[in-house]
TrEMBL record:
Predominant localisation class: membrane
Protein name: Protein translocase subunit SecE
UniProt cross-references to PROSITE patterns, sorted A to Z: SECE_SEC61G
Keywords annotated in UniProt: Cell membrane, Membrane, Protein transport, Translocation, Transmembrane, Transmembrane helix, Transport
Gene: secE
A matching Pfam family: SecE
PANTHER family hit by this protein: PROTEIN TRANSLOCASE SUBUNIT SECE (PTHR33910)
Subcellular location: Cell membrane; Membrane
Keyword presence, Transmembrane: yes
Presence of the UniProt keyword Cell membrane in the record: yes
Gene3D superfamilies: Preprotein translocase secy subunit
């Protein structure tokens, strides 16, 4: 079984973090904006679909 060495672990983690290609600030902001916009669009879509289903159910069952 491998010997646990916290210092070695930290060195390896720092080495791996150095290899990561981090997105630029602009890329992060653009991606965040797109996620928020798509989430809002999906929310509006499901709101409209829910309202249409509600109207259809009222017509079918004569409620309201």
């Amino acid at each position: 079984m491998a010997k646990l060495d916290p210092a070695q672990f930290v060195r390896e983690v720092r080495q791996e973090v150095g290899r990561v290609t981090w997105p630029s600030r602009k890329e992060t902001l653009v991606t965040t904006g797109l996620v928020l916009a798509m989430s809002a669009l999906a929310a509006v879509f499901f709101l409209v679909v829910d309202q249409l289903i509600q109207v259809a159910m009222r017509l079918v069952f004569g409620i309201g």
